[in-house]
Specification:
The chain has about 675 residues and is of the alpha+beta class. The chain has 30 helices and eight strands. The N and C termini lie far apart (about 95 Å). About 5% of the residues have low confidence.
Length: about 675
């Protein structure tokens, strides 16, 4: 024993101080010597694996965590788990003594910048960070994003590797994107407390939960905020419970709750959950509710989450319900049928929701965005998220082919006393389960690359969307002015086109006619379109060569006008009248067409049917390209001087008189409520 302790206390000069300390603690947890661990690692290590020191830290940490996860409940309570795993992140980030020296030099240079940034964010962050801020600006080491995500690949309790980077950005936004131990310890203990709190929640009235069904959120009780169900003009307060399979609403009775209404979220049906506005007597006054709609229900179930100002509660519930729905859609779409694999994905979703609860407890003043903690909700919105889902399904099957490991999500829940009966029964199906092996990060390279690609594309999309924020805040008049300004370069095409059509430039008109006729007769539509596309490419290359973007990095819209205020008002009134007249004439035209179709005007209907029959005969006999060529040629000829001489004003007048003589079907406008009563 003395020799083992002496070996454990041996300092390896190539390792940093924190790495030596972690290596010693790992050896103590495994009840072996540090030299034994190093020898075991060197049997597997090769130069092609990369950094020796970092791989040694990864190997020792994975071995130690596999032994620790069996007693994780007690270790979280006494704080040893958070301290040890935080030191693991530091050791992974600074495995060598050279890394440690460079890290402290960089940290010292950035200390003033980080302090300034935290001062600016002080008013916008939660009281948790405000209380701990004096502890976070000292010289204590902090962990970075990569180390945080790496820990998630070993033990998905504090973070899941799929959304780990988004979780890290949310947790460390007030602290310069560095994770300090007080924040990490607080977050881990909040997770542990949320799990224990959810285990004490009552089962919905008249409901027997499934073996693998776990309560995830409850509101509407005496100690929480109200939940109201709206049925027509009546409102019923009650308790709302969310599990990983369904929503349960229990209306409040005189003494206790009534039998729960179950809204199943696991069935593969056309069910939808979306936000809706509601209020007293069914009036859509407050946008603080959700509606559950399913083909199995005659009408949707409307649930309101009242609060004074924002709709944060509603958005939180909507995100949780969406996460459960997407979980079951994932299991169905990728045909995940093994009970152990299904429960593993349920466990990861459950832990994601618990992390969100913990983060909301920490960041009460500024609640975090739910999708940063929810796996499936994030991937549903993330670009290339479907690729990541496919890689998750593949890695899940590969990981569980030989059995689960002791630090998987399902094993963590089992060790935290969450529905043990299901987990044990699932594990019994896998008799060859290896409890000591953790999936190494290098085995998840395809999944990690898919996640990184999706995240980089999400950043590009966020940058692109940020450029449109200014346009979204503009009013109707400003948007109209911007639209007219953007279309201004196209105004030069109008006089050119008019000159071609009206034969003001006879040579150009003849060239256009000949080219059009050749394209139509030879059926060179594809070649014409390809020529146009190549012309667009040439213009783009010309703009790049001239450096137009550097010369003009923004578009200037002139909003001034030569008109006085009164003239502008009169112009606006004339414009509104013009729009109203266009709408009126459109309605009249549609009603006249309807009168012809239903033969309200038999004489006109007969004329139209004869004309349509003649057109149908011509189209059936004559090749369409000849008809199209004749129509184009006729269009050009009618705008020439010769065509204008052939036009008959009497014929145009007779056509107008024929159109005006068509009677329209009367229109009656009724109120919606009147229509229902009738």
């Amino acid at each position: 024993m003395a020799d083992t302790r002496a070996a454990n206390n041996t300092v390896r000069k190539h390792l940093s101080r924190i790495s030596n300390d972690v290596l010693r603690k790992c050896a103590l947890k495994l009840e072996t010597g540090a030299e034994t661990l190093v020898e075991e690692f060197e049997k597997e290590w090769g130069p092609q694996m990369g950094d020796y020191s970092k791989k040694l830290v990864e190997f020792c940490c994975s071995k130690a965590l596999s032994a620790m996860c069996g007693a994780i409940d007690g270790m979280i309570s006494d704080g040893s788990f958070s301290r040890f795993t935080f030191d693991m992140m530091l050791a992974w980030e600074m495995p060598t003594s050279a890394d440690e020296e460079s890290h402290y030099c960089v940290a010292k240079e950035k200390e003033e910048k980080v302090s300034t940034a935290t001062d600016q964010l002080h008013d916008d962050v939660s009281l948790f960070y405000s209380d701990l801020m004096p502890l976070l600006v000292d010289r204590e080491p902090s962990a970075g994003e990569d180390a945080f995500v790496w820990l998630g690949t070993l033990v998905p309790l504090v973070v899941d590797m799929v959304n780990g980077r988004f979780t890290f950005e949310t947790l460390t936004a007030p602290t310069g994107n560095r994770l300090h131990f007080p924040a990490y310890d607080k977050f881990l203990k909040e997770i542990h407390g949320c799990i224990k709190h959810l285990q004490t929640q009552e089962t919905p009235t008249g409901v027997e939960l499934a073996d693998d069904e776990f309560i995830l959120h409850v509101e509407g009780t005496a100690s929480s905020q109200r939940v109201i169900r709206h049925i027509g003009g009546t409102s019923w307060p009650g308790r709302l419970t969310l599990t990983n399979y369904a929503l349960y609403f229990e209306a409040s009775g005189i003494v206790s709750y009534e039998k729960a209404l179950k809204l199943d979220l696991s069935k593969d049906t056309q069910q939808t959950v979306k936000p809706v506005a509601t209020g007293p007597w069914g009036a859509p006054l407050f946008d603080k509710a959700i509606v559950y709609e399913s083909p199995e229900l005659q009408e949707g179930v409307v649930l309101e989450f009242p609060e004074m100002t924002s709709s944060t509660r509603r958005d939180h519930w909507l995100a949780l319900v969406k996460e459960i729905t997407l979980l079951h859609r994932f299991l169905t779409q990728y045909k995940v049928e093994s009970p152990l694999e299904v429960w593993e994905m349920h466990s990861r979703a459950i832990l994601g929701i618990i992390r969100l609860h913990a983060a909301r407890e920490m960041l009460r003043i500024s609640p975090p965005e739910p999708k940063s903690f929810l796996i499936f909700a994030l991937l549903d919105e993330l670009p290339k998220g479907d690729y990541v889902l496919y890689e998750i399904a593949e890695s899940l099957k590969k990981k569980l082919t030989g059995g689960s490991h002791s630090c998987s999500a399902s094993s963590i829940l089992r060790n935290l006393n969450v529905p043990q009966h299901c987990v044990v029964s699932c594990v019994e199906l896998k008799g060859t389960m290896d409890e000591g092996e953790i999936v190494r990060p290098e085995k998840l390279s395809s999944l990690e690359s898919a996640i990184n690609q999706a995240r980089e594309e999400a950043k590009e999309i966020d940058i692109a969307k940020s450029t449109t924020d200014g346009l979204k805040e503009e009013g109707i008049s400003e948007s109209a002015q911007v639209l007219m300004g953007l279309l201004d370069p196209l105004k030069s095409l109008v006089p050119w086109s008019r000159a071609i059509l009206t034969w003001e430039r006879p040579m150009a008109t003849c060239i256009v006619i000949v080219l059009t006729q050749i394209v139509i007769y030879k059926e060179w539509f594809g070649k014409a379109i390809s020529s146009f596309l190549l012309w667009v490419v040439a213009k783009m290359l010309q703009a790049r060569r001239k450096g137009i973007l550097e010369k003009q990095d923004k578009i200037i819209i002139r909003t001034g006008s030569d008109q006085s205020t009164m003239e502008s008002i009169v112009s606006a009134q004339i414009g509104l009248r013009s729009v109203h007249e266009i709408m009126r004439q459109t309605n009249i035209a549609l009603l006249k067409i309807w009168s012809i179709l239903v033969s309200k005007a038999p004489k006109h209907a007969n004329t139209v049917m004869i004309g349509l029959s003649g057109c149908a005969f011509v189209l059936a006999v004559v090749p369409f390209k000849l008809i199209l060529a004749a129509l184009v040629l006729n269009g050009f000829l009618m705008t020439s001087k010769f065509g204008k001489c052939m036009q008959s004003e009497q014929g145009n007048r007779r056509l107008k008189e024929w159109w005006d003589s068509i009677p329209v079907i009367p229109v009656e406008i009724l109120d919606k409520e009147t229509n229902k009563s009738e």
